[in-house]
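Researcher: Next sequence.
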Amino acid sequence: MAETRFLVDTYLDWTKNENIPIVEDFGLDLINMDVTPWARQGDGVSGAFALAKGRGDFLDMQVIEIAPGKAAAPQKHLYEEVVYVLSGRGSTTIWATSGEKHSFEWGPKSLFVLPLNARYQHFNTSGREPARFVATTNLPMMLNAFHNEAFVFDNPFEFPERLGEEKFFKGDGEFLPMRPGRHMWETNFVPDLSTFKLQEWKARGAGGSNIMFVLADGTMHAHVSEMPVGTYKKGHRHGADFHEFAVTGKGYSLYWYEGEDEIRRFDWEHGKILVPTDGLFHQHFNISPEPARYLAVAFGGLRYPFAEDKKKTYMGMDVNVKEGGRQIEYEDQKPEIHGIYLAELAKAGIEPRMNQFNIPTADQRQVAAAAR
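Model: Next structure:
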């Protein structure tokens, strides 16, 4: 009698068979994560699976490091992949259905996408330094849906329309104006996220700015947000799978579930990532003498949200929770939050730039309450 199979997770079974480290945590340090040789990726390439606890059911992260002067083996797969470069320099070639090649060079803080089921190859163009990047993919969804590796990795079907225009591989793109917080940039490659022009988004707090990306006309979402010096964003929540990569500056995030008194903290800088779990309130704070940027990658974007919860997130991300949205206004935030931030800025010798919002500290709220 055949063994009864139940509660099968095809993706997790597959990761174990790849024989590279599997790291699972709430927040992760991707630059210093241990990697080991990964046969699938070819000679001179190492990797690890970085599985954030808030990743949801659809996404994973693959940390890949290519040794100096080496090239990864050509790949082709029926899942979407968004790449953020952590360190080193290299190039990638993508082959179109017609055989035409699209090649581009990348470096630290580059962002690019690998169009669905297109053949591609990565190269480390330095003979002295390794190149490390993190790929956020929807492989778990595809393997668990079809539980057939050949269908995912050896599928001949092609999607030539996903490659888009040639300029999308050259660091150029197309600006798609919507409204603050929803402006989009369509492309396949951004050479440097630290210098990319963002759009003002006052509703998210304190002079912040952002841009949404449409990448290879796919369902993978990405956006970049920036907090000016001496400022922080408003608290908010959303569903699982938003992978939030620190790009510039340094700071910390506070997080808690609705109804909790305890506030927890995660400190970040380039190479660190926070992935809030489903419904977790969280709030980002810049404590560096430069603007702080982060990249968020998720499944379901503004063009193709895929799930109803993603639609609610994009419609309510700058709407007060009191009005059915997903944002906490400054005047409604936990009373200790502002005081913690002022103390952090004082330690760093940075002047706060939040005065226009007249946010009281916990002590000031107590004095006001006693006077009433």
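Model: The chain has a mean pLDDT of 95. DSSP finds six helices and 25 strands in the chain.
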